[in-house]
């Protein structure tokens, strides 16, 4: 191939020389070389991969056009177009003047210009495409290394096309005029000069073309303003001004006139700017060219700064869109332009209230950009805040007034962004403080310094961060005075004025007069701007407090600033609360604390809560320095802890614990009266005491753990959780607003939280209290939230309690000592909450799960729960779960990269290790009952791919092979949860085969060798046996093909979607009495009845009977009309079949009443006996599950009837002789006892002291 190319080049050089020597008069030679001329225009040469060959061919073709002029040897119009586009592409080689082939490129240009070869294209219909491409090419390659000859030939070539053509199209005109825009001028000065000379040379033609453009524009303006003239008199004036702009003194000197006016040659753009013609700019704001988008922003902002009435909301909307442009230069221009408009019209109020209202949205939009991932965006937002939103150079009172009312008028997302900005700056200050502390040690570890700065992206160029850290560390080590200046800058007592002096002094020391551009100095300035307290100091906090006092007294200018006094007070307290985290020392003054005490006495609960939290964050020296404040504060905190709102009680307890030395005495004075006065009959008065007691036991476990134990056993569990005193509203809703939740349920929720806080305070399980609590929480999940099973609690209240129980287990799992004792069954129950039938339960639980995982508080196995989100029928929930997975996986991978010590804990950190947990969880999915059922396997595949898709986006360290190896290794183990149960192990191996099928089909790299042998969690899998070999395929080849080809799933949705449900396929639980079942029959015996199975197989008539509302996601309820059942035969089942290990084998089944003739399964049912042939109760929709087909739902095989009871089923009684007190795991009383003791229901309790 190389030899052929060399031969081609030699032949091309020979041809070039031959054609160069020929002239137009040699007719014989023209005929002789005509075949060669045609051959050179073949596709082989026009698309040759070698650029040298293409250049030689282009030179030959140019000479051919010269020799055969004025006619060309090519008759096909398509061939001519291809040739000239090919020649145009070769002209790009003119850009590099140092290229050894430049002389040939120059020869090509010279030949084309001299002969005017492109004039042949006038005969073509689409010649404009060729000309536009030529003009763009020439303007793009011109640069300052070209001599006068190159520019002259370019001008000759382009001017001949303009002057000898029939006219200039708009597109061709744009390709010339675009180079005169200031943005393009800055990019290429030579292109600007070339365009300017070209316009002067062709002014006669160009003037007529521009005049036609303006005539069209005048018509558009006339129609545009005529429609609006009746609405606004000013528009008529603007239109007259616009028309007058077209009356030029001398049309022949049109270009000169525009230049004298210091306007762009693109006068149409200028007219559009100032007279609100938006269509042109709308198109240009989305132009592919960065410079054009940039110029649109500059144009609109310039017009807006001159007169805001010249730009409408749509034009400002274009600028708003460009704040998210993909190019940093455009984003920066848009953000800075909006900031300038805000400062001019909102802060300085140069055009009145109407103008300020028009741009009031800018502050929110600019702060929202802080959510972007780019560090450049974050730094620019911080700069804009310090210079435009709240200018730091204002006097303290004026600056704080600006901040006070800005904070009060921001939307919630902007407030969060501003809080996050202060949080990041404060974190950076702490990192710099750590760096300075390192320099006080004998040796400074550079590696630690690098890690310190890499942990937070605080520099505009992360690629140079390592070099910056090295040099900055060296400078700090060599210059003690610089270190002292930096220490003063980050000192809590540094004032804003001192910070300004320190920043200038440090910059002066690092500046180098011999080096005009100093990247290192720029980096340091970025760092100093972020850590310098340019807004907040003690004086500023005092000014903020005075402003808030004026709002309280009613003497502030709140209404004039556009906020109500109540809004200003509440926002002011929230602002002070945020600043109390970042600048706690600045609050330490009697005047500030006196104002906060005044806020504590206000009736507004939010204001009082924020004031308590400020005391908690800043009051560490109150006890020693301000005894008068202390004596006033203590009784207020006691009162809030006893009778305040739950949030106030929490903050009051934490405040006492944080700022007082005798906190044990203070907390005891709260604990003792509250613990003695607990009364479950008045739940309204229970919520605040439960909150206070829970936080006291968590903060002071040594002092209150033992007294709290008796409170938990005797009151919390026995008296509160195990009793239903009130009857909930039977409205069928799955969720109710907070204000509609009954006080008893709110008290129960707080009781569950109290149990968790009590255990988190102890941080040990010596008394086995955690085991009992976990059994209680599991029983609450099994019972669907109705722990007493008295049917007195409403559906929405049950949802609240399920959410509280699942969240409590997840909270306990964050403590290592409790995570170890959580059984796989309890983990599975907790996981199933994410598939709850109530939309809000799923949503809140997923948010709590994500929040804990992102902070690396939860074990890795809990990330596997997100795989179940593939079953969620709501698209937004699935999308949210996927985003949570992406965030969690990226955080864990980044943590491993930046923390070398993390390699020792890969089993708990490496995202890929979630695969075995996911496989085990899906193997125990209650919906997975038939290992060979294709629909169930398809559900498994979707759940697996939901997680694997995110994990397999990158093949880091051969992770695909690693995950495949884990699945293969699991097949060599047994299920530690049920090691001797063949069916459980078969389901586990089936899930492994589905996972292997997915991995093999999605990755070609999974067959490589695994980087290391994975370690499987012993809590879920047994150790592999030496002689055990499992090479069986648990899914057939046909099934494998069905899974990979994606057979369409049956339609239908979960109970959270407003669509009718098909038959659920869940066997309903039929409550029985002694007379129904005869003697010695367990409550589970009906489930094993073949007759019952046959009757359920026959049931197929489905009718819609009611709707249960779940906020905006109502659930459609259906009932099934079953066939008659045969009498149930006596069958003896021992009570040990209903052990804790079987709790989670069924989920989403809801217990149903047997009220004969009932048309709505949500209506309150009466307990009545049914004859043996009576129809079973209709099944309710499964919780949190996507639909199944009716065929699947109505077919239940006999071999599936012996499954242990699951979620929603009542557990078998322990024994007739057992005492009334039950373990939490067995806390569900049988129905027989309920009927036998109607007059006096059995009192059940949980023994937490075992």
List keywords for this structure.
disordered N terminus; mainly alpha; 1250 residues; two-stranded antiparallel sheet; single chain
Give a written overview of the molecule:
- This protein has 1250 residues and is mostly helical.
- It has 57 helices and two strands.
- β1 (1101-1108) and β2 (1115-1121) form a beta hairpin.
- α31 packs parallel to α33, α36 (627-643) packs parallel to α38 and α39 (687-699) runs parallel beside α41.
Shape: globular
Major sheet: size, sense and barrel closure? 2 strands, antiparallel
Number of strands: 2
- What's the helical proportion of residues? 55-70%
Helical/strand content category: mainly alpha
User: How large is the share of residues in beta strands?
Assistant: under 5%
Cα end-to-end separation: 86 Å
Output mean pLDDT: 76
Region (Disordered): 1064-1250
Main location: nucleus
GO biological process, one term: cell division
InterPro entries: ARM-like (IPR011989), ARM-type_fold (IPR016024), Pds5 (IPR039776)
